[in-house]
Amino acid sequence: MRQVAILSGKGGTGKTSVAASLAALAGRAVIADCDVEASNMPLLLHPEVGERRDFETRRAEIDPESCLRCGLCVEECRFDAISDFKVDHVKCEGCGVCAYICPTGAARLRPRVSGYLYVSETRFPLWTPMPRRSTAR
Hints:
With 137 residues, this protein is α+β, with helices and mostly antiparallel strands. It folds into two domains: 1-46, no CATH class; 55-114, Alpha-Beta Plaits. Helix content is 19%, strand content 25%. The chain is built from four helices and four strands, in the order ααβαββαβ. The chain has helices at 15-25, 41-45, 72-76, 97-101; strands at 48-62, 82-83, 86-87, 107-121. The strands form two sheets. A two-stranded antiparallel sheet has the order 1-4. The protein is elongated and about 60 Å long.
C-alpha cells in the first residue's frame, strides 16, 4: 500500500488542491482531510455524506465542593488553563494532568462533542477495477 501525505504549517499553500488533484488521478484511494480548523476537501470533491459520527474530546472541570485549593493542578497545568481553581476551556487541551494529580478527585475530565467525522462517497469510488499486472518477468 502506498501512502501520500501532503502537509505544511502554512495555510493557503495549495495542499487541498494538490490532494484533490491526486484523488482525481488515483484509481482507488482513501482520502482523509485531517485539517481540524478548515477542512476544504469537500469543496472540491462534493461528497455525499453517508454517515456522521460524533468526535469527542475531553474537557477538565473542577468541582468547587471537593477542591482543597492545594494548587497542584494550577502548578502542573502546562497550558496555564487553571486560575482561581476554574478551568479556561479555551486553553485546556484535555490532557488530564489535573485529574491525575488531584488528591480529592475534584478535577475531572468530562467527554464533550467537539466536532464530527463524516464517512462520504465521492465521484471517485474506493473500489474500481484495477488493470491486472503482468506477472511474467
